[in-house]
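Hi L.,

You mentioned the student needs an example of a multi-chain input paired with its predicted structure. This one should do, with 458 residues in total across all chains.
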Amino acid sequence: MILLEDIHKSFGTHEVLKGISGGIVQGEVLAIIGPSGSGKSTLLRSINLLETPTSGKVFVDGVCITEGRVDIEKVRTKVGMVFQQFNLFPHMTTLENVIYAPIKVKKMSRKEAETLGKNLLNKVGLGEKLHTYPPHLSGGQKQRAAIARALAMEPEAILFDEPTSALDPEMVKEVLTVIKDLAHTGITMVIVTHEMGFAREVADRVWFLDEGLLVEDSTAKSFFEAPSTSRAQGFLEKVL
Amino acid sequence: MMLDFERIWPSVPYILGGIPVTLSYTIVSVCLGFIWGALLAFCKVGHIPPLRWFADFYTSIFRGTPLLLQLILIYHASPQVIGYKFSFWEAGILTFTLNSGAYLSEHIRGGINSVDKGQMEAALSLGISYPLIMKDIILPQAIRTILPSLVNESIDLLKESALISVIGGADILWRANEVAAEKYAYFEPLIVAGLLYYILVMILTTGARLLEKKLKTS
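Structure written out for the whole complex:
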């Protein structure tokens, strides 16, 4: 459902992505891993054009979104995103955070959206926090609310940008559990993560990035058991 | 020096009558100026270069020329250019709005930039359109930073609105001048006018301080 063709991205003279190609099929869970500064987040953010690639093509559902006139807002409703820093809207309650976009973008009725929102927040264990403002939520609760917000748009895919990196250790698990449960629903997921155990457990496939290149693209099983490149071997030795 | 406030005492209510006039110029212009300033600020932080150039150029023009010149130009020159003669009220409101919009746009831009970048990204990732993001996500958060400067702009405008008396708007200063001419006494009525401006500004300043305190605690 997502296809990347020779993606390059430079910030000034610094080339972060040096030509990355690959595809992600419907319902697949892909983990993108690699050392810091390898371009993982930039690549992820290229998929919904939060970063515009310097060159190369991005296809979502067969439509090239990097060329010509594309309704990028519509594409973004199909590809949700969960951020490292949660980025909940602090002036809205948890429920309002979740239902704002369905009402304003998808023109859902308020009533319908509230039912959907309550449902989703219940699912991520925040049924008690519907009317709480984000500053009064813990990190783990914020991230779960952010996941519910992304799900409320009923996207075909969700991009996770280091969803547990800003969390205190004791809150990592509750967020990972929510993401794991999602993996079984058939939604396409792309996850940039440093949690190797989690990636191994939840991902179907792994992309290993290093210095802006896609060094290894293999199933999670074979990547963690027998990485084929020496760079991936070296990386895994360091982090596992 | 002979000061005789008793002589102008009967005219004081007449000068007081200028308060609503002065306030109406101030309040209407600040409100309209805020809306106009917000639109200019959106242009400045947006990604459409011609709009950004326009907003920057506009701001530099209105900040780089005297307000009095702008007022006189709009009041006296408009019939020649657009064939319509503005009333004092229209010319005053228009000038003050255009002018405070320029100043406020800079403050609003600063407020917008003070909002965490992640807010914009999260909103974009949900497919929300740029105008909606600004209105519902960014501006409500920026308002905290903007509010103090909005009050300062109101104070400035309250004082600068006295310029309207130059083209004949019957505000506090204009009325004081009238009284002065009538009684052949300048000092007393102008002191009364000055006092009124000072009191109004003090009220606004106190209100602003309370507001800021409240914003800090909430």
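You could point out the following to them. The first helix of chain B runs from residue 5 to 8. The mean pLDDT of chain B is 90.

Best wishes,
N.
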